[in-house]
Amino acid sequence: MSVDPLKFRNALGQFTTGVCVVTANPKGYEPFGMTVNSFASVSLDPALVLWSLRNDSECYAAFEAAKGFAINVLSLDQAALSNRYSQKDDHNLDSAHYRIGKSGLPILRGVLTSFECDIWQRYDGGDHLILVGKVSEMNVSPTGEPLVFHSGRYRELR
């Protein structure tokens, strides 16, 4: 049985996800970020997380050169950041949007949580590359509501 890609994407959209911006600054690149909703936990010990990147992404070469990345979990009031870093060919970070974390990675300001990661492994995932990171640092905000995405649009938890 063959699965229609558009129908499959729409079906996956029924799964509510958080919204993150993955940031990095490998040698030879300006600090950059891209919006994703493919973030997931993998392991508690060691602390591992993953996200996936389309093979045809304009950020592919930069993440291929990266030794680490940061996952920035957006808060409800950061939809504009999500929109900003989801734009094609416009991923350089605005200097007002980030600070440099303990590991040297760019961390977005005002996020609910950030995970600074060293790349643990890269795996082929069909039309995506799966990047697994080992968390070296994290920062968690004690308050705030998450930005979530469901069925093609942002939502609020109630």
TrEMBL record:
- Keyword flag RNA-binding: no
Keyword Glycoprotein listed? The answer is no
Give one Pfam family.
Flavin_Reduct
Domain of life of the native organism: Bacteria
Q: Which UniProt keywords apply?
A: Oxidoreductase
Domain Flavin reductase like intervals: 12-156
Please give the family membership noted in the entry. Belongs to the non-flavoprotein flavin reductase family.
Task: Give the protein's recorded name.
Answer: Flavin reductase family protein
Query: Organism source for this protein?
Result: Spongiibacter thalassae
